[in-house]
Amino acid sequence: MLSALQVVAVAYLIGSLPFSFLVARAFGVYDVRQVGSGNVGATNVLRNAGKVAGTLALLLDVGKGAAAVALAGRLAPGQPALPAVAAVVAVVGHMFPVWLRFHGGKGVATGLGAFAPLAPKAALAALVAFALVAAGTRYVSLGSVAGGVALAAFALALRGPDPVAIATALTAALVVFRHRANLRRILGGTERRVGQPKE
Prior knowledge:
mainly alpha; 10 helices; globular
């Protein structure tokens, strides 16, 4: 059995695995940080390396969030709050990966994977919110923010302020923070919409 600190370190390392970067490179984009939005995430991979690459990056990023939470439960079964901590830490790892000098993605897919087993109803609500807002506005970034807020709101409403709900609130705050530039561009009318051709 590992200590809580060791489990947290493992969760961070899993979350920091730069799957979007590696998938993009495998599909011909040498450094996804240097193209498009510069974000190390599935949406930027999709736009610059194609649908197959984007889908693969998305699934891997979701999977690493789920893996971090599952391992936390197995490695420290006597600490029921630790999977929730691992979920947040995995998202932080994705956002600030040590392998890419702490220049990572925005944590949406990893957060979905991490909280789907911990708060499935809230995760489903987040997915629906994302889909509705992204489809209605054609802003993936706005859909991502809406999904993060919905995750926290539903988790708090359904569970009260337990460790998982608090973890969703922290994650939502991180997601909003990482999308601050996108929100400024939306307000300024310069954010790229889904399907909008490159200038």
